[in-house]
Design goal:
This protein is an all-alpha fold. About 80% of the residues lie in helices and about 0% in strands.
Length: about 260
C-alpha cells in the first residue's frame, strides 16, 4: 500500500508538470503555425504571455509575491518530507541493538546497567525506557505511568515535525486560490477600464488559473506523503509499545543493583 501511494504521488507530480508543459506547447504551436501564400507553414513568434516567466510576472507585484510563496511552500514540503523519512525509521526510533542490550540487562536483573545503556542511546525508545527505569523503586504502576507519559511526549514530538508537511499541503492551494482571485480582480478591473478584448481576457484568466494548478500540484503529493509517514509513525509507535511492555514486565520482581 505504501509503495502504491508513493507511485500515485509521483504520478501526480509528473501529471501536473505534463499538463503545464503540454498547455504551454499547445499555445505556442497554435500561435506559431502560419500558412504562407504557397501553402507552406511558416514559423511565427509566440504571443507575449504564453511562457512561464510571463505567467509568473503577469499578475504584477502581488502575483509575483504569491508565486514566490507558492514555490517556497513546495520547497518546504519537499524538505519536511525528506526530514520525515529520516525521522520515521525503525533504526532511529527503536534500534534493535538497544532492544537486545536492554533485554540482556533485564534478564540479568541489572536495572542500573539498563539505565546506562539508555543514557548512551539518543533514540526515542531509550528515552521512554529511561523514564520508566528511573522510577523502578516506586512500583510497577508508577513505572508504567512514567513510560506512558514519556511515550506520549515522543509521539507528540514526532507528529509535530510531520504536521509541517500537512501545513504546506494546506497552504499551497490557498495561495493558488488567492493568486487566481487576484488575477480575476485585475481582469475585471481591466474590462471596466478598457472594455472587453477576448484574446487579452482569455490570456489573463489563464494566467490567473495557473496559480491554482500550481497549488494543487504541490498539495496533492504533499498530503499523500504526509499520510504515508503518519501511518508509518503509528505502526512504529504500536510496535514500540509492545516491545517496551515486554521489556518492563519483569520489573515487578527486579531489585536495583548498586555499583
Amino acid at each position: 500500500m505504501k509503495k502504491i501511494m508513493m507511485i500515485v504521488a509521483v504520478a501526480a507530480l509528473v501529471f501536473g508538470a505534463g499538463v503545464t508543459t503540454t498547455t504551454a506547447y499547445a499555445q505556442e504551436a497554435a500561435a506559431g503555425e502560419v500558412v504562407t501564400a504557397d501553402g507552406q507553414k511558416a514559423e511565427a513568434a509566440a504571443p507575449k504571455g504564453t511562457s512561464f516567466i510571463d505567467v509568473v510576472l503577469g499578475g504584477g507585484l502581488v502575483g509575483f509575491i504569491l508565486w514566490m510563496a507558492l514555490f517556497a511552500s513546495g520547497a518546504f514540503a519537499i524538505y519536511f518530507i525528506v526530514d520525515g523519512y529520516i525521522l520515521v525509521r525503525p533504526k532511529k526510533i527503536m534500534p534493535q541493538e538497544l532492544i537486545d542490550q536492554v533485554k540482556e540487562a533485564m534478564d540479568q536483573g541489572d536495572v542500573m546497567k539498563a539505565i546506562e545503556i539508555c543514557d548512551n542511546d539518543p533514540s526515542s525508545m531509550a528515552k521512554i525506557l529511561k523514564a520508566g527505569f528511573s522510577h523502578v523503586e516506586e512500583g510497577f504502576d508508577v513505572i508504567d505511568e512514567a513510560i506512558s507519559a514519556a511515550g506520549d511526549l515522543e509521539i507528540e514530538y514526532m507528529m509535530q515535525r510531520l504536521n509541517w508537511i500537512q501545513i504546506c499541503s494546506s497552504l499551497a492551494p490557498m495561495l493558488g486560490l488567492l493568486g487566481t482571485v487576484q488575477g480575476m480582480i485585475l481582469t475585471f478591473a481591466s474590462i471596466a477600464l478598457t472594455g472587453v478584448e477576448i484574446s487579452s481576457l482569455s490570456l489573463t484568466i489563464s494566467q490567473a488559473l495557473y496559480t491554482t494548478a500550481g497549488g494543487l500540484c504541490t498539495a496533492i503529493p504533499a498530503i499523500m506523503f504526509f499520510c504515508i509517514l503518519r501511518n508509518s509513525a503509528n505502526r512504529l509507535v504500536l510496535r514500540m509499545t509492545v516491545v517496551t511492555g515486554d521489556l518492563i514486565k519483569n520489573l515487578r520482581n527486579v531489585e536495583v543493583v548498586e555499583g
